[in-house]
UniProtKB/TrEMBL annotation:
Record domain NADP-dependent oxidoreductase: where: 60-108, 123-425
Name recorded for this polypeptide: NADP-dependent oxidoreductase domain-containing protein
Species in which this protein is naturally found: Chenopodium quinoa (Quinoa)
Domain of life: Eukaryota
SUPFAM superfamilies linked: NAD(P)-linked oxidoreductase
Endpoints of the signal sequence: none
CDD domains named in the record: AKR_unchar
Amino acid sequence: MSTFVHLNPLKPIKITTTTTRRNSPSLGRSSARCESTAEVATEKRLIKVSNGNDSVEICRILNGMWQTSGGWGRIDRNDAVEAMLRYTDAGLSTFDMADHSTDGENSSVVVKNGKDYLEMCRVVNGMWQTSGGWGKIDRDNAVDAMLRYADAGLATFDMADIYGPAEDLYGIFINRVRRERPPEVLEKVRGLTKWVPSPVKMTRSFVEGNIDVSRKRMDVACLDMLQFHWWDYSNSGYLDALKHLTDLKDEGKIKTVALTNFDTERLRIILENEIPVVSNQVQHSIVDMRPQQKMAELCQQTGVKLITYGTVMGGLLSEKFLDTNLAIPFSGPSLNTPSLQKYKRMVDAWGGWSLFQTLLQVLNKIARKHGVPISTVAVKYILDQPAVAGSMIGVRLGLSEHIKDANAVFSLELDEEDVDSIRDVSSRGKDLLRVIGDCGDEYRRA
């Protein structure tokens, strides 16, 4: 009998075992049991791994404990330990684990500018979905969900002052982390928020007052990252606001200053004014590759990173919309959320539903090859693009979860054939830089 055991989710190991002929109420007739019996020789169930004077004898079938990291169901500590004892009693007494639930090298990134820096998870939990339009959010269920994401290593949350209760939910969440989790979990949690003011006169008192509101709502003395948005480039008040934000950073109220939805020209102006922004959050997906046409080059020259949203297009880049025809009323899934409606318009601008189906078919083939969902492939492709530090996946807290799929991003490696096939279909669409304009211009068109 051949058994595949996942010591490391990236490297399945094939182990040949012997089928036992007696009945076992716990393991069944066909058993991979490591015990000393006449049917299973000791040399077949155990192996010694060694190098020089160093050696350890282990069972050839290992109990992998990645599944305790979140995404496979809630783990009760006492029940889990009892289960481990049963495995040991059955002779399966070698356990494989890690100090963290994800590959730390791949899962985190540092965004920085000069002495300012912030380490964050590369997959960011987007909280736009708490603002209404995605289903009713129950406060307690939402915070419980945030804890599950953090426990699974997905501990960076993105929100805004205009995202309904998002900042308040984060404040409740961070307090529970302080009370209920060990210090090492708290050290990994990051709260990225945005300030989206009307383009009025940016005085020091006005800027500070708004930042203080976010600090109070999020219950933190210092915001990990403040991402600034500006609606009207004809009003140069954005430079005044950013200078005040930089002063507040120097005073300890903000750890890092960043941007959201700024174009390449304005990013250059901001940097020329010696404002130390660490990142710019922009829309970026396989359909919308505009950030790679102008923005990424400036980012690589200056060290500014991109944090991307719309990367799974509100869920359009998923099996749910594969082989569907939205032109026929009621024939496919409904576009019943603000994000689905928004990104369907982006599909229409790019090349239409037929071309989008071709893209989904290509992504589905790659996803099946790697044993992951389409959305995981979509996120990984963008994370691999130049200057991209992190990508957003929206979370419908308390309503649905994608912890396992999100963590799968860190172990996925797209090969050259995968990348070429995605690039080929992506390039068949219209040039959105010409159709829409640079990053963020969709918010400023008349």
